[in-house]
Specification:
This protein is of the alpha+beta class. Helix content is 42%, strand content 13%. A hairpin with a 7-residue loop joins strand 2 and strand 3. It is globular and about 65 Å long. It binds zinc ion (ZN).
């Protein structure tokens, strides 16, 4: 609704994890009051219920809402700077370690939302290796775009100005598209135009490479404007590349096998049922803790059931290039860079 929402969160607010995730949801939904309920992609209202409402702009609608949700928790001083930066580092980890990042762009991810956004598939898919979500990808596009605009305009403009201008132009000042919605929705190209108009700088190359394309985001340039940089470290824990549907009781049935992982090298496939690890019988609840007793470089003998046959293989753990990313302060950050960071985190 334009003026109300209902959020249901299982668990007790006294539990730290529940409190944190409720905070995130509330901030996200509150930002939706502007971004999506009022300012909206043209395909998302007025609705045509006779056809699918595919849009290229969910990375703006949901991803930028993720970004501002987190940024607002910092601006409200509920999170401190390091909590906010570590939350953004987690999102970088999520995106940069996903093989789908180099295959699916933010716009494509938006367009195929009905097939990737918690969709149930009858056939087996390989989406875990080929796709990414427009939520975290859009969040990082928001982070990087905001800092590039702030940096390239010497702090005169920001993504906040872009969002305000979008709201003015399309929601407040466009003729109503229908009797029940004010203004009209924006087209994806119009967001790009407004970014360039507000900043006075052309961002066409950015949109081609990072919104419609799959090039790695220019984290270093963006973060350097505010005296930060991205530290990349090889992951110290081993990574099997196996995912099993969590929370279901019974045996551990492989949901996905990540490309280039130990599990793929060992010949494991989605649908295989893990029976034993190093001779010990495992179930869904304990397969991961059993596997985590091994160290990087160890060999873990596994038996598994495929169709009606019991097969054996060995997981050679930790051969994969996965990285931990951390946003950290530059040692030689200047007064100007620190001032720009303070303005960003305060919303000035
Ligand atoms: Zn949302």
């Amino acid at each position: 609704h334009l003026t109300s929402t209902q959020i249901i969160q299982p668990g007790a607010l006294a539990e730290p994890g529940v409190y944190e995730s409720t905070l995130g949801t509330v901030a996200h939904e509150f930002f939706h009051v502007w971004n999506v309920k009022r300012l909206r992609p043209i395909e998302l209202g007025p609705w045509d219920f006779t056809r699918p409402a595919n849009t290229r702009s969910l990375w703006i609608a949901e991803g930028l809402t993720n970004y501002y949700g987190h940024l607002m928790i910092k601006r409200a001083e509920i999170w401190d700077e390091s909590r906010f930066l570590s939350r953004e580092s987690e999102t970088i980890n999520n995106i940069e370690n996903a093989p789908g990042s180099r295959l699916t762009s933010a716009e494509e991810s938006s367009l195929i939302a009905p097939f990737i956004d918690r969709a149930q598939h009858i056939q087996r898919t390989n989406l875990a290796n080929t796709s990414i979500s427009y939520y975290p990808k859009g969040e990082l596009l928001g982070l990087v775009l905001d800092l590039l605009i702030r940096g390239r305009t010497d702090g005169k403009k920001s993504l906040d100005d872009v969002m305000r201008r979008m709201y003015d132009e399309f929601y407040l000042n466009s003729p109503n598209a229908t009797y029940y919605l004010r203004g009209r929705g924006y087209r994806s190209a119009e967001f790009q135009r407004v970014v360039s108009e507000v900043s006075g700088i052309r961002f066409d190359d950015f949109f081609t490479r990072h919104v419609r394309g799959v090039d790695v985001l220019p984290y270093d340039e963006a973060l350097s404007y505010v005296g930060l940089h991205l530290v990349q470290q090889r992951e110290s824990e081993h990574y099997s590349g196996i995912t099993v549907n969590v929370g279901t009781p019974g045996s551990a049935i492989i949901g996905n096998v990540i490309n280039g992982s130990a599990a793929e090298d060992a010949g494991l496939q989605p649908g295989d049922e893990i029976l034993t690890i190093d001779g010990k019988k495992v179930m869904n609840k304990d397969w991961l803790s059993t596997l985590n007793r091994f160290k990087q470089g160890d060999r873990a003998p596994i038996s598994f059931k495929r169709d009606r046959r019991t097969l054996r293989t060995t997981l050679v753990l930790g051969a994969m290039d996965r990285f931990e990313y951390r946003i950290e302060e530059m040692k030689d950050a200047t007064v100007g860079q620190k001032a720009l960071r303070a303005a960003w985190l305060k919303g000035e």
